[in-house]
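User: Batch of two.

Assistant: Item 1 of 2:
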Amino acid sequence: MGAGTEPDGSSRSDEEWERFLRESVAGAADAPKEPSARARDVAKRLRAEPDRAPEGWRSYTPARPKRRRGWYVVGLLASLVLLVVALAPGRVVDLFAGDEPDSPSPTAETARPSQAPPAGAAQRPTRDEPFRGSPAASWASGAAGITVPKAGAVGWMSAAEVERALARSRDFLVASGLDREVLRGERPEKAIALINPHQTDIQHFLKTAFRTPSEQNDPLLLFSRFQPSRAELVGDVVKTRGRLTYREGERGALQVTADVTFVYPVTRADAGGDDDEIVRTIVRRELVLSWDDPDKVITEPGTFSIVSNKYDLTNGGCGTPTGYFTPPFGTDRRADEAGTEVDPYDRSAPVGRGESFGEECRRATRS
């Protein structure tokens, strides 16, 4: 059979044969085509979800805009702030001025400062804010203002024993200068219990000072007390600032030095109004305590011996010792006007006075 011969024996022309070959190579126009991978995938999903329209691979659906709740919250807060300012403008001003009694205390004192705290605006203290206008307004309250260092082994004591001794040393400062009953004139039994009962000179002092106070035997040398019939504390807070330090003393003893300033706001005992005069009695104490080795010194467990004590006092009274601080009110302030001026908040210099008050009065440049 020839190349151009049909099965029935008929023959094709050369033009028809060339067209046949071209269509065989290019494919007929109506010949079925193999579907692409994308088409097969779409067809499969249509069969699975016949009611859902196909999604284009480049299609994009914009996200719904979020509700602008942030501006609503900001507006509400701003309205509340304006309401507070309108109702209590003085409290807001004092808060930003740093005179609020509950404002955060400054960094704890871990070393002697290089200068006195800066002077602020002169503001009269009130019963609600007895430390107003004073550097003590930003000091810590009570025992929180007394910094206790990290303990390490010293002499005959391990680190744990030193830690306990430091805690008891601070307990003495609390019992002698912050206990409410002692401040109201009671005998400081808790503080006395921490003193070595075998220290003869101190025990003689304690027996005499509360019975017959004198310059040499005055309970105010170690304890803070006010006479209830003359003065009363304002509020429940005493401001403090100071620290404990320690080193090895004689015969391997642990020697603890306390340097703490106490600020007591007081008023007349018979006062009863919001306009009552408020005076701040300020005393800075430096005590050196010795926790002795019981194998070398006669002592009792949990007690210390007093090596020395110094103090600075302002607005605490002058004249014959009575065993109580006697804050000057009204015309009594004139007795202090001739005294030596001292800044009671300046802790940059050493404590200046010895173991008795003496006859010299000191006038506070600020209180």
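Item 2 of 2:
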Amino acid sequence: MTTTSAVPRPGFDAELKAGLAVVGGMFPPTITPALIDFMRTSYASPPMAEVFAQRRIEVTEVVLPGHRGDPITAAVLRSSEFTGVRPAVLYAHSGGLMFGDKFSGLDLVLDWVTDLGVTLLSVDYRLAPEFADPYPREDMYAALEWLAGNTAALDVRPDRVLVAGASAGGGLAAGVALAARDRGGPRLRGQVLDYPMLDDRCITASTEQFDGIGVWDRVSNETGWEALLGALRGSDEVSPYAAPSRAVDLTGLPPAFIDVGSAEIFRDEAIEYADRIWRAGGDAELHVWAGAFHACDIFAPHTNVGRSMIRARNTWVEKILAD
């Protein structure tokens, strides 16, 4: 059993700390390779049909070509309350690159569909370790190409396409934005990077601070990156599309919304990524939520911090999609 780190660290928000014991039953602080199968069951999305029906969201399951043209599944979500041409969001789910599915954590972004008229494409990208790099990131990029090629059929505005994701999905979203820039791919309106998983090297101070405590600790992070990259983790051969912190050049990227907790391992790499976007002359809005553990808005959306995170994110998306 992993012991709690003695390194000084920021404390958890009192309201969030009270919920950590409940979260731990579904999402243990430390995830080793032996726990991947457990997490695939524990973190699987609950039945969503009733939620979609209550919110008048129409869901269409699609099969599209992923990496190497292999078929992957995705879901297109649209509100029945909106008509005409709409903005779109390509969404990458959380789950450490090893678990989760296209509906995992999706509750957080359903307001975009119901309130902003967004057409949301959420992807079942293939998971490590069975499908190591480049499968997850290239599945997501292929989904972006599919979305861009079907804007007319989907009634989507090609100039109002965002990429978004949470945790591992946030890292994938950042990688898609980099790849779209470098490959001359679809032009993105913005990127939403929620507490993103950006750096395979796992060497930041915040990584050391949250070892055996909270949600998604140092060992969990190493497990996820090693599942994706194997022996390449930490080497000079890692692609920036897999680990966006590796990117040398952050110029020419779409505007970014980046948020992260002060009490989680991704704090320092998220702050650094925002700072490097600014230094490159780009546009980033950064929120560091005091006392927030990783993905607390997924696990504790009823708390003051969770509600504030969701509200700030929704406000930015509304702003960036406006004419």
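The beta strands are 57-65, 71-79, 86-92, 119-123, 156-166, 190-194, 256-261, 284-289.
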